[in-house]
Amino acid sequence: MRIATIADRATVVNIIVAMFKHNPTIQFMVKNDNKTNKRITAIAEYAFDFAVARDGVYISDNNKGVAICYQYNLKSFTLKDIGLMIKMVFKAIHISKLFQIFLHDNFIKSQRPVDGNYYYFWFFGVLAEEQPKISARDLTIALFEKAKIQRIPIYAETTLEKNKKVYERFGFKVYKTWINQTNGIQVWFMCRDFRMA
Length: 197
Description:
Order of helices and strands: EHHHEEHHEHEHEE
Strand order of the largest sheet: 1-2-3-4-5-7-6
Largest sheet: 7 strands, mixed
CATH topology: Aminopeptidase
Number of domains: 1
């Protein structure tokens, strides 16, 4: 595993796009038309650009697995981050759903610690062709070791039950579930706590 750089952008974005195509939240956010793939790509590019600035994009040695995981309070939200978000909104988001998306995202963020002293496991994906998922194991072991050394928790959310089961196999615990009544999306809030390790 290594920390991704700008040179890895295309590889990472391709993996994120492959995973996002089946994500209920992403499907809700983007307009379903002949530009859907471009819209999902714009969200994936935003995720990469935001996280790479925080040294939070990791790629497996075989380039088939990606994790976006960064210490939430390590770097403040900047004007550049705002610019990236605005660019992504115009390229990808269904404008009529913007307020609903804002409320959805704010509620999710409100369930994590206010002090921001945690790692946020934003994205985790491995290309379907890799069997067994060696890169998934290697990525999680390396990230967990960082959190263990610092004795801080890792928080994550998922809207896919199969992903929830994967996280649970890696030791995450569900601390809250929520169904957004506006869009019907179920969210599992999960944590792997290393504070007592």
